[in-house]
Amino acid sequence: MSYGNTRIADLEELRQYQLEGLQATLNRVYRNVKYYHDLFKDIGLVPEDVQSLDDLSSMPFTTKDTLRDNYPYGLFALPLSEILTVHSSAGTTGKPTVVGFSANDMLNWREVELRVLELAGITRDDVVQIAFGSSFFTGGFGLHYGVEKLGATMIPTSSVDLERHAVMIRDYRVTTLISTPCYVYALIETMDSMGMNRRDLCLEKVLLGGEPWTEEQRTFIEESLGVKAFDHYGLSEIFGSGVAGECEYRTGLHVFEDQIIPEVIDPDTGKVLGHGIEGELVLTTITKEAMPLIRFRTGDLTTLIEEVW
Fold it and tell me: How many other CB atoms are there within 10 angstroms of residue 140's CB atom?
């Protein structure tokens, strides 16, 4: 996972922007979120103490258990009257995690989802079919917003059955499919069982996410459908599927650092690791108003490679 952003080209300018965003976020949660206020008091920290991005590593982590312990609205930094939308996880392993978005958060969410699409070479001339669900799950909604902002033609199929979905891809001349890798595999099997000629489709790109997948799977999907397959990454607690995207070179994912500060830590010790060393991804939001998160442990393993592009 490389990291950079599409809106700030100068690294020094970006780091200053991040510091200012971090300071504003710390002030926001200290004033408005009881959990963080009490936590900072316990460790003797006031937001004004943070004068460098390096100071971030001294702060405690936020985990999914933190969200569950403060269910449902305990980590919101705004009153419900200023929350435009609420999403949550399924809660299959306990209390669901709940997230909220303000009006300004929604603008930023649309922006990062737009970047994911643009990185994959998707344009307003594409016909985009989104197979992600659109309920509590943020992935489908976020990409829906991104396609709207891009101005492409969108077909939000969500839970349509596989046979109908395959027919829609063919008949509606879909050029871009957004789904999980497993769903693409199921579509390929369905098309074959229907006797559909996969090479007669207008598909050019598939944007995949929602689960881990391998380069072998990429090769199979590309050869089976005659497409280019692109990856993207996200999680409900941050910006849905708009945390990072893969560009045309497909050598890693680009994190949008004007919205998020990424770190990689040793998952056992919590120590921050240097660039090029695999560890657990930790994310701090620097623009979110409704539910900012400080050093959120994602549980996902990755490697940070510093590149400005």
Answer: 24
**CA nearest neighbour of 55 among 293, 281, 261, 300:** 261
Backbone angles phi, psi at 231, to 5 degrees: -100, 160
Q: Quote the strand ranges of 236-295, DSSP E.
A: 240-246, 253-256, 260-265, 279-285
Query: How far apart are the two ends of the chain, measured CA to CA in Å?
Result: 14
Helix (H) or strand (E) holding 143: helix 138-150
The answer to whether domain 2-107+256-306 has CATH 3.20.20.140 is: no
> Mind listing the pLDDT tens digit of every residue in the chain (309 residues)?
444 444 566 889 999 999 999 999 999 999 999 999 999 999 999 999 999 999 999 999 999 999 999 999 999 999 999 999 999 876 656 788 899 999 999 999 999 999 999 999 999 999 999 998 766 667 788 999 999 999 999 998 876 799 999 999 999 999 999 999 999 999 999 999 999 999 899 999 999 998 999 999 999 999 999 999 999 999 989 998 999 999 999 999 999 999 999 999 999 999 999 899 999 999 999 999 999 999 999 999 999 998 654
| Nearest CA-CA partner of 39 in 26, 51, 48, 25 | 26
Of 44, 42, 36, residue with least CA distance to 70: 36
Domain at 121-233: CATH architecture? 3-Layer(aba) Sandwich (3.40)
> Do residues 285 and 25 lie in contact, with contact meaning Cβ atoms separated by under 8 Å?
yes
Domain ranges of the chain: 2-107+256-306, 121-233
